[in-house]
Design brief:
Layout lengths: L1 E6 L2 E7 H6 L4 H4 L4 H18 L7 E7 L4 E8 L4 H11 L7 E6 L2 H10 L7 E7 L2 E7 L5 H13 L1 E2 L4 H7 L1 E4 L3 H9 L6
Antiparallel strand pairs: 1-2, 2-4, 3-4, 5-7, 5-8, 6-7, 6-9
C-alpha cells in the first residue's frame, strides 16, 4: 500500500489486489459494508496519518476506482465549505483521475425517494439507480464542486450512506432499475407536484 497526499484535504491510497487477497478481502467485499472492509479502511487511515500527517477529523467521502488490473485507488476527501475554491482549482489542473462519481447506498426505496426529492437541481447531472444485495444504490455524476454539491451530499448522507463502489460494478453485478436520469425520473414519477 502506498499513500499519496494530494493536498490538505485529499489523499489517495493505492492498494494492490494481492494485498486485498492477503487480508482475505475480495473485490465484492470492497463494494459492500462489512467488518473486514471497515477494518481495512481504518488501517489505511492510520497509515495515512503516520505517513503523510492526514487526520480525518471532519466529515469525508471516499471513492474507490480501479487504476489497473492489479491495483485500486481509494480517494479520501474531507468535506469542508472552504473546499469550493480548492476543488475548482484542482478540477482545472487534473482532469485525469478526477473523482467525479459518487455512489450512495439506501436501505429501502422510500429513503431513495425522500433523498432525491430534496436534491437541488444540477444542469449536467447524470444518475443511475441499481439494486444490489437487497439495497438500493444511487450513482451520481457531474454534480460540480460548489455549495450545491455540498448541500446535495448533506441531504444524501441524511438518508443513505456513501460507499466505495462504482457504477460499472453495479451495472455488472447488480440489477439496473433506472440506467440514466434516475433522479429526474424518480422526481417526475413519484413526487407530488408543488403547489404554486
Amino acid at each position: 500500500m502506498r499513500v499519496q497526499k494530494v493536498n490538505e484535504h485529499t489523499i489517495r491510497i493505492f492498494i494492490s489486489l494481492t494485498e486485498l487477497t492477503d487480508r482475505d478481502i475480495t473485490m465484492a467485499d470492497l463494494f459492500q459494508r462489512s467488518a473486514k472492509t471497515e477494518q481495512l479502511f481504518w488501517e489505511l487511515i492510520s497509515q495515512a496519518r503516520e505517513e503523510v500527517e492526514f487526520n480525518l477529523d471532519q466529515p469525508f467521502w471516499i471513492q474507490a476506482t480501479v487504476a489497473s488490473n492489479e491495483e485500486f485507488v481509494i480517494t479520501i476527501m474531507k468535506q469542508d465549505e472552504q473546499l469550493d475554491g480548492l476543488n475548482k482549482e484542482k478540477t482545472r489542473k487534473s482532469t485525469k483521475g478526477r473523482v467525479t462519481e459518487l455512489v450512495y447506498v439506501f436501505a429501502d426505496f422510500e429513503d431513495v425517494l425522500a433523498a432525491v426529492g430534496r436534491l437541488p437541481e444540477f444542469n449536467q447531472l447524470r444518475s443511475g439507480l441499481f439494486l444490489y444485495d437487497t439495497e438500493y444504490y444511487l450513482v451520481l455524476n457531474r454534480m460540480g464542486s460548489g455549495k450545491k454539491r455540498l448541500l446535495a451530499e448533506a441531504i444524501l448522507d441524511e438518508y443513505g450512506e456513501i460507499v466505495a463502489t462504482t457504477g460499472a460494478f453495479l451495472s455488472e453485478h447488480g440489477k439496473v432499475i433506472i440506467p440514466v436520469k434516475a433522479v429526474q425520473t424518480l422526481n417526475a414519477s413519484f413526487q407530488k407536484p408543488s403547489q404554486s
